[in-house]
Write a sequence for this structure.
């Protein structure tokens, strides 16, 4: 399907896309057709630019610099043909990336360039640069600029807010390099200047800067300086009374030298010193950054040659004999009108100031490249979740503890650190309430270890984008409930007026939940993740989303999805309400509602048995006092009302002291009195009596000091079957202990 045709005086350029109608319809459903426009512009030599409709029957002529419906979208393949006239001998595209150039070839028989391009997730402004040679040897170029839009988000509205959001939280994090698209930025009085901004700005200034240097060297501004010289009488040009007297005195001495003052033009001016300083500094920095880019690889031969030409020009200028007579720059003592207004000097001064400035997104004229939209959306989701957690906990920015959050990577771009290094700690009055992690990758050095303390994956690496851990204290002190969020810049389709997440993303959340475990040195592996949720740039009415399968599945299996996009407060509220519920719900309720695996206990980790330990058996009692006990056995009778299969923890009640420590029940089995008491010889008829034995493993300390129970509430004064959240109600100092009839 032919979409656009450019008639140039030297060639015809056409752009095609076989699936454009479906791409356009998809973008219209997600964004709305009124926002699917692009601004088109081109250089000289164009006769006409015409946009064709889907069927190719109707065509609309576009004006240079005018707006028209977009033709380029993310993750879409486009075929491009450039058929040259007979007066052109060869041609190519001037892409910076080698991978793009590899997809285009010059067909000599057709005298044409043909190939395809896919902008992937790079959205923003883009250019096609056609480089060609005429039969007479003249080199020419043509530039066609346009915008690559997102088919899932509104580029003109959502993209801008995402970048502004990120830049406000993490300065310069959104910027990147060697992308296929760019964006307009303006100088900013605040912020910092980075190598990336320096390189990108100098790219637009380098030709002007080099030409300005050449102009100054050819016609420099100089200053007349005076100096004393000694000359013979016949070279004297101006006679002063003193010289006349000296001539009369030495008229018979032709070799006598006369001291006079002479003026001469000097290039050693403040402005030329600044030029020397600026040129030297820029040349050194350019060469340094150029080496880093070339070592990184992946750039085209055309771009390499362009960098080398600039580097060579700067080096030659720096070594010009002109600068031998120019001294070192020691700063500007006062404002210089020459630097501000004189030809050449004003351009040098302007370029130098631009290279020192920071930049921010503000529809400026200077080009900077940003990370692809999928990465930006992922970072934005992390920031958005952090804001929601902060709001629902009722905290301020002062209650958040950000770790070292950014690191330099690649050429000269910044990325968020991962796992523990990107943690945001939510706390109030020194009490930890929640933790949020960004992209906890698996640690290759330790098998299965993720870079969040205690989390492991024993199979393949698991890399959820966002990990939220909420601190709960009702089951055990500082227990953390783990929830995973994964940002996906994808939409499967639309069902019942609601955008739906991709199936493979939902399946991935099942894998995350089942593959990530908690590892404790004393207890081995334990299930860790409560639920996993996809965040995707979908849309739909709030009530329709709540009735969708991907949302209802959250209540059913704790796996689901939330549509989340900028400036969509109504759907943000769905995620707000969900996170608020997670924060309000205590751990015992959460764990009790988690669907167990087949054959697993329903009341996981909640029910606990309290049993009397007689203090007269010193050896047996001391094992529980010093936390070394590994076994407990009952008396001859055990209450039939206690369901052994529901017990997971045991608390010893030391007679005369009370309760303090918690033990995990590893195994329940029947034992004889002989085995329980470790009797070597059977010396009475009770030795073969059966008792219930519990293999134990020390877990933690429930109280700092022993606390006594109201023993009247215990079954047969020996046992208590209860839950962690009810234990305090049985303490001896509780005024209204519950009735034991419930047990």
């Amino acid at each position: 399907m032919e979409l656009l045709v450019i008639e140039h005086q030297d060639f015809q350029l056409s752009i095609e896309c076989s699936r454009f109608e479906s791409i356009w319809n998809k973008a219209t459903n997600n964004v709305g057709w009124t926002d699917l426009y692009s601004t088109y512009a081109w250089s000289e030599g164009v006769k006409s630019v015409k946009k064709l409709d889907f069927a190719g029957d109707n065509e609309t002529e576009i004006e240079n610099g005018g707006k028209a419906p977009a033709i380029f979208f993310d993750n879409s393949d486009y075929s491009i043909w450039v058929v040259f006239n007979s007066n052109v001998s060869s041609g190519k595209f001037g892409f910076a990336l080698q991978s793009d150039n590899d997809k285009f070839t010059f067909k000599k028989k057709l005298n044409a360039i043909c190939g395809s391009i896919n902008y992937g997730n790079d959205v923003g402004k883009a250019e096609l640069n056609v480089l060609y040679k005429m039969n007479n040897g003249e080199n020419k170029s043509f530039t066609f600029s346009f915008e690559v839009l997102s088919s899932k988000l509104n580029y003109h509205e959502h993209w801008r807010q995402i970048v502004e959001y990120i830049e406000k939280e993490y300065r310069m994090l959104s910027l990147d390099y060697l992308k296929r698209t760019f964006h307009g930025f303006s100088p900013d009085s605040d912020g910092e200047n980075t190598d990336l901004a320096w390189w990108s700005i100098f790219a637009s200034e380098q030709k002007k800067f080099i030409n300005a240097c050449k102009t100054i060297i050819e016609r420099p501004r100089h200053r007349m300086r005076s100096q004393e010289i000694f000359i013979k009488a016949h070279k004297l040009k101006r006679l002063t009374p003193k010289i006349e007297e000296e001539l009369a005195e030495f008229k018979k001495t032709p070799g006598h030298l006369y001291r006079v003052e002479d003026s001469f033009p000097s290039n050693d001016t403040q402005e030329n010193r600044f030029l020397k300083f600026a040129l030297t500094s820029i040349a050194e920095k350019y060469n340094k950054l150029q080496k880093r880019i070339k070592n990184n690889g992946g750039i085209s031969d055309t771009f390499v040659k362009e960098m080398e030409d600039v580097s060579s020009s700067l080096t030659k200028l720096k070594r010009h004999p002109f600068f031998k007579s120019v001294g070192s720059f020691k700063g500007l003592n006062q404002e210089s009108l020459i630097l501000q207004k004189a030809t050449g000097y004003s351009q040098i001064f302007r370029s130098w100031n631009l290279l020192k400035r920071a930049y921010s997104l503000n529809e400026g004229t200077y080009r900077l490249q940003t990370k692809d939209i999928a990465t930006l959306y992922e970072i934005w989701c992390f920031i958005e979740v952090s804001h929601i957690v902060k709001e629902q906990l009722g905290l301020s920015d002062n209650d958040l503890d950000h770790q070292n959050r950014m690191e330099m990577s690649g050429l000269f771009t910044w990325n968020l650190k991962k796992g523990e290094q990107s943690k945001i700690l939510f706390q109030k009055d020194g009490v930890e309430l929640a933790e949020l992690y960004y992209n906890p990758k698996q640690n290759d050095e330790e098998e299965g270890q993720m870079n969040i303390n205690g989390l492991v994956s024993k199979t393949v690496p698991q890399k959820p984008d966002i990990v939220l851990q909420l601190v709960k204290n009702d089951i055990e002190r500082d227990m953390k409930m783990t929830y995973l969020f994964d940002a996906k810049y994808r939409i499967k389709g639309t069902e019942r007026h609601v955008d739906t997440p991709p199936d493979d993303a939902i399946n991935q959340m099942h894998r995350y939940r089942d593959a990530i475990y908690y590892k404790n040195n004393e207890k081995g592996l334990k299930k860790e993740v409560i639920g996993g949720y996809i965040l995707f740039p979908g849309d739909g009415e709030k009530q329709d989303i709540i009735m969708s399968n991907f949302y209802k599945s959250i209540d059913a299996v704790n796996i689901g999805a939330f549509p989340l996009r900028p400036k969509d407060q109504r759907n943000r509220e769905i995620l707000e309400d969900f996170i608020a519920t997670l924060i309000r719900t205590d751990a015992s309720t959460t764990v009790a509602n988690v669907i167990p695996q087949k054959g697993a206990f329903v009341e996981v980790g909640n029910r606990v048995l309290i049993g009397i330990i007689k203090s007269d058996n010193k050896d047996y009692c001391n094992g529980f006092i010093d936390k070394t006990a590994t076994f407990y056995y009952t008396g001859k009778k055990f209450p039939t009302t206690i369901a052994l299969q529901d017990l997971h923890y045991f608390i010893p009640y030391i007679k005369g002291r009370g309760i303090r420590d918690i033990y995990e029940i590893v195994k329940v089995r029947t034992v004889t009195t002989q085995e329980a008491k470790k009797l070597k010889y059977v010396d009475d008829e009770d030795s073969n009596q059966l008792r219930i034995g519990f293999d134990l493993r020390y877990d933690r300390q429930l109280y700092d000091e022993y606390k006594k129970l109201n023993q009247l509430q215990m079954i047969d004064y020996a046992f208590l079957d209860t839950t962690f959240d009810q234990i305090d109600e049985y303490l001896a100092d509780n005024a209204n202990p519950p009735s034991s009839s419930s047990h």
Summary: Confidence is low (pLDDT under 50) at residues 442-446, 598-605, 735-743. The longest helix spans residues 270-296. The CA atoms of residues 608 and 722 lie 6 Å apart.
